[in-house]
Design goal:
Layout: H1 7-16, H2 24-36, H3 38-56, H4 66-76
Helix pairs in contact: 1-2, 1-3, 2-3
């Protein structure tokens, strides 16, 4: 039996799933984690809201350079 995903693993996988295909096992691991973890469920909702806002503003996640992403992350901290 494998251990439940840690929060950092679950949130990273949530983001990865937006851009890449994920195995059924990995998807189920994330879903199981979300059933048990309110913090990651809130993260998923917040992330979806941010994605929607960026889309409405016409800003593509793919248009950022690594430096710009780092600056944005630092501003959010």
């Amino acid at each position: 039996m494998t251990n439940m995903l840690k929060c950092i693993e679950a949130t990273m996988e949530l983001e990865r799933m937006k851009f890449e295909k994920t195995s059924l096992f990995r998807k189920m691991s994330v879903k199981f984690h979300l059933m048990m973890c309110n913090a990651c469920t809130n993260y998923q909702k917040d992330s979806a809201a941010i994605d929607k806002l960026l889309k409405e503003k016409g800003i593509s996640k793919h248009s950022y350079t690594q430096e710009e992403l780092s600056e944005l992350i630092n501003e959010l901290k």
